[in-house]
Amino acid sequence: MVVKPGIIVNREDATSPPGRRLFGAHPVAEWLRACPRAVTALYYQTGAERRLAAVLRAARDAGIPVHPQEERALSALAGSRRHQGLVATAQPFTYVPLDQVTAPPARLVIVADQMQDPQNLGALLRTASAVGASAVVIPKDGATAITAAVEAAAAGAAAWVPVARVTNVARALRELKKSGYWSVGLVPKGGANLYTTTLPERLAVVVGGEAGMRQLVATECDFSLTIPMQGHLESLNASVAAAVVLYEIVRRWSFGAPAGVP
């Protein structure tokens, strides 16, 4: 059902349009670039036409219905006040089979084990896009799915980075090994030094969630890496630690540092 311009929509209202929600300028803009057919309707804040002109033009060019709305209506649609004047409805997020994104020449996969904070997973997706990872792997249970909050935190990266959602992370790591990947777990202490360890040519980097990596998953890792810490704290936020490690891996690969088996 189309929402008429100016009508206030709340989440309990029967007129609330169906579909997945995207909110924020970057997530909406990136989905319009990457896959406009996934976006079913666009709602923008009345009076913000000039600021949002490029996004509105892209939506209209793609034949997507565009509706002005009051700020309260957008907050209700998004389930958040952090919508930046832009909310879209879209088709359900599509997860990909793991084997579809790990065939050569793909060489970097990120595995997030039980990451429950949408901000962490969104930041991880953003880093994954920046370093050119071929996929992010998440479990079906005990972790956040790709939600509107995750997409907002990812600032549009979820439109570009394939996400595989698996039943069993440990089994997924075994499958990755069969495809030629070495699995490396990020641990706050006790692992090999990130800056002095030789890195293999193909890596599945395992990042634990807010409570850390599960033991069963850790036992499937071929080796572990630790970021040397100079201050009083023993660890970094999960997504920050992942960013440090991933950029170091890509730097080594990019500048021809010797690769091999740790």
List keywords for this structure.
alpha/beta, Alpha/beta knot, disordered N terminus, 7-stranded parallel beta sheet, 2 domains, 4-stranded mixed beta sheet, 262 residues
Task: Describe the secondary structure blueprint for this structure.
Elements: E1 20-23, H1 25-34, E2 39-45, H2 53-61, E3 66-69, H3 71-78, E4 86-90, E5 108-113, H4 118-131, E6 135-139, H5 148-154, E7 163-166, H6 169-178, E8 182-186, E9 192-193, E10 203-208, H7 215-219, E11 223-226, H8 238-254
Parallel strand pairs: 2-3, 5-6, 5-10, 6-7, 8-10, 8-11, 9-11
Antiparallel strand pairs: 1-4, 2-4
Helix pairs in contact: 4-5, 4-8
| CATH class descriptor name of the largest domain | Alpha Beta
Q: Write down the oligomeric state.
A: single chain
Largest sheet: 7 strands, parallel
Mean pLDDT rating: 89
- The succession of helices and strands, N to C, reads EHEHEHEEHEHEHEEEHEH
Q: In angstroms, what is the radius of gyration?
A: 20 Å
Number of folding domains? 2
